[in-house]
Prior knowledge:
With 478 residues, the chain is of the alpha+beta class. The protein is 37% helix and 21% strand.
Amino acid sequence: MTAALLDSLRAIVGDAHVLTDGDLSAWEQDWRKRDRGRALAVVRPASTEQVAAVVKACAAAGVSIVPQGGNTGLVCGSTPDASGRQVVLSTKRMNAVRAIDPANLTITVEAGCILQSLQEIAEKDGFLFPLSLGAEGSCTIGGNLSTNAGGTQVVRYGNTRELCLGLEVVTAEGEVWSGLTGLRKDNTGYDLRDLFVGAEGTLGIITAATMKLYPMPAVQLTAWAAVPSMEHAVELLGLAHRTLGAGLTGFEVMGRFALSLVAKHFPQQRVPFVTAAAESADETPWCVLLENSDDESEEHARSRFEKLLEHAFEAGCVSDAVIAENLTQARALWHVRESITLAQVEEGLNIKHDISIPVSRIPEFVRVTDALLAEKIPGVRMVDFGHLGDGNLHYNVQAPAGGDAKAFLAAHEEEVNTLVFDSVKSFDGSISAEHGVGSLKQHKLPHYKSPVAMKLMRSIKGALDPQNVMNPGRVLEA
Length: 478
Ligand code: FAD
Ligand code: 2HG
Ligand code: ZN
């Protein structure tokens, strides 16, 4: 049976694109190296028709499929399980731009298009594609859509879902749904597009998408501010909304310890207001990175930014600040922010919580949850940072200094997760703001979503994928 399936797959995509031997770790191992599965084969189709044929062949053989884009997901959703019975379907060869419609402000691309390529193609035509995240050099638009990725410009442009107008999808039965309409208005029944966005490959395979473009702002300025407390960071956010209006396109918060890890592991980077030791009480507990996009001129943008920071100093919610003088400085500041995840990798295994809470309640959440954790596991180190403008914190827990991180995770991961997620629930938050559920959190979901929500989700899965071919064990239990 397996040999017959492999023969069919080779006939569909060509021998060279069905990988079964050699080092398959790039497809079998997740980005954080938390999970190493084993694939029956890695299949690399080049067209929607090939994807449909692969799905039909796998479904007929009773073999499940794990769709994979850039494999940068952080919740173990894009790698196979250990059974050796799953096919990884990589979309990487499907990366063409199908169309740009400048009047409609849309671009239609295939699912395997790398996010950074999409940004660059849009920019060449004078447009902005505003999705932006640390993994943009390797993640794909299909993966972004399937996780409904967030990133650093959500405060102005929304998540990937808000940027998507249409999809082409291969269903779990191997049929092609062509929904690449590019329409901004279409009230003709259930929104199929929105079912597939954020489904993490459990309902079908996204093969192409029509995405929104925006006019490129005349100028983008970046500022970095030291703030005395999380309360002050929230106050600064309110001021920024009022002063910059729609010009506020980024508002990131970073804790002192998170930044100290960047200073420690990447000493060539200059981290404003924080040192690698991060021990001095003189060092700011939090920093904020702000981005101001302006359609008039640099002068206009700068004067609005200065006005905002002046008000913030007067109100006591900023203790120090710098505005980047040029693009190189702005990029260096963003690079520090985007390096926190990598600095955490250097520091050792950690427990990630990608949570959202109403912005107004974040300071209290951090205070209460920090205290609960410190009481339960003395010495744990909090790596807090994230998209404060969206109420999204990466509330990550690093093992106590000098300890064995692997042993720490084995002993404490489940209790730390339960403590943090219970606290999130008590603040009316979500246990996954932007990374998704994958296989890492699927067992937690029924505890934090209502029974009715879980029943509806299972009904949708059952209706669209009755054979459970698509990414089983992700989002919902297998
Ligand atoms: P993959 O990892 O390959 O897959 C992710 C999920 O989507 C899997 O469940 C997979 O089965 C499914 N999938 C992939 N392609 C398809 C398809 N064509 N059809 C159906 N299902 C599919 N995420 C954020 O939201 N915001 C951030 O700021 C952010 N920053 C990051 C920074 C770093 C350094 C890293 C490593 C990750 C970051 N991420 C962030 C997480 C990750 O980059 C995103 O989840 C991204 O959207 C995943 O895209 P991908 O192509 O790598 O998808
Ligand atoms: C980010 O915002 C990403 O940089 C990754 O979502 C978060 O590493 C993390 O926990
Ligand atoms: Zn994030």
